[in-house]
Amino acid sequence: MAESTSVDPMPLAGIKVLELATWVMAPAAAGMMANFGADVIKIEPPGGGDPSRGSTAVVDDAVVEPGFELANGGKRSIQVDVSSAVGQRAIHAILTDCDVFVTNVRASGLERAGLNPDVLVERYPRLVVAHATGYGPVGAHANRPAFDELAYWSRAGIASILRRGADEAPVGLVGAMGDLPSASALLSGILMALLRRQQTGRGGVVDVSLLQCGLWANGWALQPALSGVPRRPRGDRLHPMSPLYTMYQCRDGEWVQLAMPQPDRYWAGFCAAIGRPELATDERFSDRAALVANAPLAAAIIQETFSRLGLDEVTRILDLADLPWSPIFDVAQVLADEQARVNGYITSKTHRSGVEMQTLGPPFSLRGTNPMLRPAPEAGQDTELLLSELGLDWDEIASVRAGT
After folding, report:
1. Catalytic residues
2. Which stretches within 143-287 are classed as H helix?
């Protein structure tokens, strides 16, 4: 899907975005804007460019950068030394007619580069400045370096709350698992600011932090704690709070997750579906209180039953009963999942080398408007053309690219 086949116009056509960001969160927010028609200019540092380019794979003899492609498709790339006078001149020349400036540079770095967000919106009143940070714009740790493993996962309590017990080590994070949902929050803030600009004629500053998004992701646990409700330890899968809200292994080694938060609603139907209708009237499990009190015993019985069933059988009986559950897929199973592919969640696009590569689509769909899944640029590929259009001469352009 190299270009959109949309019936309707691209919703962000005519919106110009300047991005000064590396890694994932802020680039992915700008990348989603490019998917839906925005003209996004990405500033990369001289040399190798965005460090997220460093992870590569080979597809049909072409070297591709899968992670970089996910967050940066459809952008133009220029390489600029933002600390130099000529680099700052180039940035301000672009900002003159920009709608949005997206950055994850820390406040101290923006100050050194003459890009303080409050100063920018005074100088360019219609500009929306979207600032992605680790820990928020104020406070003792506002300028602390951060990745999502730190601010989103660890500081927001997710790593701790996923432990099965106090003696177990906190649970680690797969890279960018916090960055990508935080990018969606950043995009939401940008679009909200653009809508407000339609009402007021002024842009403004959007602040989104990894800590903020991690707290929101952990909100179902934190919100009760704010009201003094103690958090019950999770326990292992065979000692759950409810036998209908845990994981079981099938005969063939596959795993399933049950998620039936109302035992009174689901218990009888579940027991009938797995061929154990007598459990529904067993006094040990006959009402919600009894089922919760005897959850480990019920879980052991269910596990013994599932141990005689393959995943195909579990799929058939639970789907027939219309019960909420899911197989637990590994990466290979996820990539082969027809449900993800038929909805366009896993799709393909053309890499700049010309090879077709598989890719994820954005995390939302607009009926009638297909996203433009275009290749990510080479580092600095648009530098000369764009800067010459802005009036810089060739000596200045060479100086910008060299970082001198």
Report:
1. 179
2. 158-161, 179-200, 210-217, 219-226, 263-273
